[in-house]
Structures are given as C-alpha cells and as structure tokens.
Amino acid sequence: MIAQRINMKNKEWIQKILAHETAQAVPFNFSFSPLAQNKVEKHYGGSPIEEVLDFPIRMKGMKTIKPLYASPAVFGPYAKDEFGVQWTTSYIDRGSPVGPCIHEPDLYGYTFPDPSDEYRFEDLSQWCDGNRDNFTIIWIGDLWERATFMRGMEHILLDIAMHPQFVKDMLRGITDYILASMDILFSRFEFDGIALSDDYGTQHGLMMSPEMWREYIKPYLSEIYVKGKTNGRTIFHHTCGDVSLIISDMIELGLDILHPVQPEAMDPIALKKEFGKALTLCGGVPTQKLLPYGTPDEVRAEVKKLKTHMGAGGGYILEPGITLQADIPIENMVAMIDEARRL
Fold first, then answer.
1. Whose CA, among 64, 71, 160, 186, lies 20 to 30 Å from 21?
2. How far apart are CA 282 and CA 139, in angstroms?
C-alpha cells in the first residue's frame, strides 16, 4: 500500500506533520535535475512526475529570464539573469555563476531589477488553483547566496572584513526586492508557504562564524520570515551543508521546515532529538555515496530507518539530501521512491 492513500488530502497530511502529530505515513518530496527526471518519468510511464507519484508538496518559483536549468541549446554557453549575473549553461545541472555584476564594493550606478515585472507571475494563479488539495510552496529567491552571485564569493567574504557597510547595503537591496515580491504574491495568490534558497554551510561547518552570520544575515532574514509568518505562510528554508550552529537562531526567527538536512554534513537523527519538537526536518537520504553507489536493498534499508527514527511524532518529510542527479542508477531512485511511498 502506498503512503499517500490515507483518509486526508495531501495538504492536511503536511499540516498534520508540521503540527508534530503522528500521521499514518511519513510524507516525502523529491526534486530532480532534468536528466534524472527524464529517467524517472520514463520508468513510471507518465509526466509530470509529481502527479504520477502524487507528491503531497508542490513547489514552484516565479519566472526568471534565466531559468534554473538553462539549456545550452536555447541560451548558448552563457545566460544572464535579472540581476545581471552571467551563468554557464549545462545539460546536466544549473550551471555556475561566472560573471558577477558588481565589480567594486560600491552600489553606485547599479539598479536592482523590478520585482513587479509581470512576467515573473505568469501561470502562478493557474498553478495555485490546480493544487488546492496539495501543500503549495512558492520559491521567493535567495539572500546571502544572491550577494555571492552578484559580487563573487571571494570578493564578498573579503568585503565583510574590508567594506562591511557595502555588504549590508547589498543585502538591504536584495531583501527589499524579496519583500516587495512577497507583497505581490500575498496580495494576488493563495498558497501555503514560502521557500528561500540560501546556503550558509560547507560540508564541515558554516562558511562564516555564527557571530558574523548573526550580524550580516540574521537581521534581513528576520524581516523575510516575519513578513511570511504575519501573512500566515509556512517558512521553508533550503540551506546546504552543516548549519547546526545557527539552527536555534532560525527557529527563533520562525523557521518551520529546514531543508535538505544533508546526512554527510549533519546527523539527521541527532537533529531530530535536539530540534524535533520545534522544527520540521526535510531531507536525510544520502546522495553522495548511497544513492549513486549503493545497492537498491541498501537504499530501501536506509529509507526504512529514516521513516522509523525520523518520522515518529511528525515533524519529518523524507527527501534526498540534495537534488537527484542523472548519475544515480534508476534502480536506486526507484528503490528510494517506492520505499518512501510504502506504508
């Protein structure tokens, strides 16, 4: 019996989990790179995969002039986004930011994009209406991560030491763009949560000290969370790596769902014990070794373990530690998906 066949709608299922109530089944969520999604859709014989597998969570972003996965066949070897950042394009992943748009620690002459550009909101009304029975989350952008794209990682980290006010001014501008986008979303569309994509961690810890994070990022993050919470939305935050030293801060600000809980960087079961009553954890399935190199039986065993130890008492959504890539054997993807959907 598959997990979603329970006597409630998908939206109610997730709401129950967020309330830290034990449900009949642990919910799941999966994201795929384009090539990986093609493999999975071919196996299950249908498209889109979220409909075929009946994902309880449905996620969508506002439109961008450079899509997350920009095809070289359409854009050529490079593509620029709304902020003026140049990216490589790729058939297998999202590409890399290789052309910062701010070359000196000064915002003079730079104009942030217009958050009210109408193309950004195309198809959102139809999408929201079509997913009323599911738990709907809209991606609202990135904050610190956006600053690293605009200035370059090395430069922005040096700027913190040498030009701290410039960094704060840049984060202020990005925050204002996000807040204005949220105002439009909240006034025009019905949906359940907002998602911010903002990486703070490396495999072995934060990319800056907790004190520095609290000075430079936390105040702006607070404004975003507060606006979401006061408008009745769930807060979903994607941040890769080991962010264990600031999870309490994020909970304090109002975080509801922490994603993707990479087990190679943080112990999901330890996080469940420490934060499980205050936070919903989303992730946990290893993607660096188990999924690409393990056996289907090993994958099924890991999924079972996570459902047992993480799923008790709600507050857990099963998902891989990062977007599934095409190097994962289809047998392992199917083993993970089918075991996740099993009661």
1. 186
2. 16
